[in-house]
Amino acid sequence: MLKLDGIGKIYKVSSGDVVALDNVSLKIGEGKFYGIVGHSGSGKSTLIQIIGLLDNYSSGSYYIDDVDVSKMKDIEKNNYRIHKFGFVFQAFYLDPKLSALDNVMIPMYVNKDISRKDRKNRAIELLKRFGIVINMCKHKISQLSGGEQQRVAIARALANNPDIIIADEPTGNLDKENEKIVFDMLKELSSKDKKTVIVVSHNEILKEYADVIYEISNGKLVGVKDED
User: Fold this and answer.
1) How many CA atoms lie within 13 A of 221 on its CB side?
2) How far is CA 157 from CA 163, 204, 211, in A?
3) Rounded Cα gap, residues 37 and 21, in angstroms
4) CA nearest to 195, candidates 186, 207, 205
5) Once rounded to an integer, what is the mean pLDDT over residues 203-216?
6) Residue 30: helix, strand or coil by DSSP?
């Protein structure tokens, strides 16, 4: 599904070049749970931003379903972001002025394949799946707990039924009970829904859930652990 070959990323700053990724090669297949681990500043967040087409790479090649990303136009990349990827972040990035229901519907407004009527029904079903009951759907995000907000964020990531879920430190702001709930939900997406799930985390619990672990250090891939 995804193939990265010799990916490098260099940021140019006033003090000189900063190498964020150095010759990283890996493959991401369908329906597995992938973990990306490494110390702070190792380059793992940069890596998933490149995977999710949120950032560009400086060297190497990246293929999505055998399509060369370097040859994609901006409109093609945007189409992939809408239909192929769903994103979950540590800070949630939900609109506090909107209800949980409205937050989940936001990605669907740019998806012409989902009608206005279906947006609401789909959002409600997703929120119910992740434990947000009907009366809570109307609550503003600021009225929900951190764990509830992250569940809303996961529902939003699934709004356009993407093949791949990318989660960057999804439990970083949660307590132990809620971090397990979130990891259980993400695991179910790979095992039951056959979604490809890619999670970056410092949390050791990630190793209990992931089928494949990629370890990044100083911008380089230094270890791979495959449960198969």
Assistant:
1) 17
2) 11, 24, 21
3) 14
4) 186
5) 92
6) coil
Describe the crossing of helices 116-129 and 146-157 by its angle, rounded to 10 degrees: 130
- pLDDT tens for each residue of 87-138: 999 999 999 999 999 999 999 999 988 998 899 999 999 999 999 987 889 8
Q: Characterize the bridge pairing of strands 164-168 and 2-13.
A: unpaired
> How many other C-beta atoms are found inside a 10 Å radius of the C-beta of residue 84?
19
**CA triple 103-159-34, angle to 5 deg:** 110
Nearest to 6 by CA among 48, 55, 54, 57: 57
Spatial distance between the Cα atoms of 157 and 153, rounded to a whole number of angstroms:
6
| Global pTM value | 0.94
Q: What is the pLDDT of residues 7-47, one digit of tens each?
A: 999 999 888 899 999 999 999 999 999 999 999 889 999 99
